[in-house]
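[agent] plan:
  1. take the single chain provided in the ticket
  2. run structure prediction with default settings
  3. attach structure tokens to the ticket
  4. add a short note for the reviewer (M.T.)
[agent] executing step 1
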Amino acid sequence: MKQSQPEAEVLLSQPLPPPAARPLIGLRSAVLLVVANMIGAGVFGITGDLAQFIPSQSALLMAWVAGGFMALCGALSYGELAARLPRSGGEYHFLSALYHPALGFVSGFTSLVVGFAASIAANATVFGIYVATLVPGLDPVWAALGLLTGLSLLHTFNVRIGVAVQDVFAALKVGLILVFIAAGLFFFDPRAAGVPAVAILPSASDWDFIFNGAYALALISIYYAYLGWNASVYLAGEVRQSTRNVPLSLIGGTLLVLVLYLLLNYVFLRSVPLETLTGKVEIGALAAEAIFGRAVGGVLSGLIAFALISSCSSMIMVGPRVTAAMGEDFPIYRILTQRSGQGGPRYALLAQWLVAAALIVSASFGQILQYIGFTLSLFSALTVFGVYVLRRRGGAYTGIRAWGYPVTPALFIGLCLWMVIQSLVSTPLTAVAGLATIATGLLLYVVSRRAA
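[agent] step 2 finished; step 3 output follows
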């Protein structure tokens, strides 16, 4: 099928058609959606894994700063794209409009498999690990699958209730983290517990860790922990006053999470010796036990597992909007646009459940992280480069713009490319899996075009 006019020109010169679903999401819910997507298994499970490669407190904290700065640069760029190209679908919509529908389709397929299903699997896996520490004999895999299934059914059959539940869980999660931070900063004495003081400023030897390939791989994992900074763009068509509220939710949510992550990791390192955290996934449980004692620490571990429900819920809610947008544009996938009586994209949710369930039973937490980071970095870099493309193509624009342009988009793209190159060198099997996913998406695009 020939295309007589590039999609971006159409989008920039004509009003958009009405969205497929009524806009039910306000600014507060959009910010909480971003926060809930970002705060999840990453911050409660990554630092212990990273300590195996970066045995330095200050270098670890700097990695969290770098990841947050990278996410903020991305959020600033996505904010401008969302204001100028308002429609649900995220990278699928942006890349189709800015470059070519083939690239957008491959990105959408990758979002289904990697951006959401794999991220849901990672969060559910850590949820299962935390729950299993509280319920002896419980298989973490079954706990993860139960969470995945229950939340998928909720978001299938009632969107309004799903949004309300999501808001409550996200607010409770932020509250839990604030309590955790306050207790670790003001009611815990590391000297009495024999924990060394946290070194915040890097020493001369720390810079050796920061400028080597292992640090780039660490940033891939931390990039996973910050994933979700772009959450609200995936359902922009369902956000009220989307050209204003979507960019504000991206920036505000990312800044809030950056501050919370730094404080929370400082508390982890302040309450548990680094060598004790090294190689552990349940670092939140270890820190809770050190700060509150074994009995109360067990309760806090349960609350951390409870908080991970919000992360899974937000991703389960957002992901199907990408596949539904693809179904609107490609007749062969039109079934993905079908919604339940209460507005949930049921078949898109089912497809997401199948992929996430397969990853839960077949891959480890660390493998999922590297797979996610490598693959999504490619498409995020291409999307942020679209700010340059759009400004060159779209002429004058007086709406929301990316602060710090052209520096902030360039920094984001540079960090993404650095991580991708280091992943190709250091973990080639992960890179092969990511490239195979991209190739599969391209094959499906060719099939869909021929069917059309």
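[agent] step 4 note for reviewer: Residues 1-21 have pLDDT under 50 and may be disordered.
[agent] ticket updated
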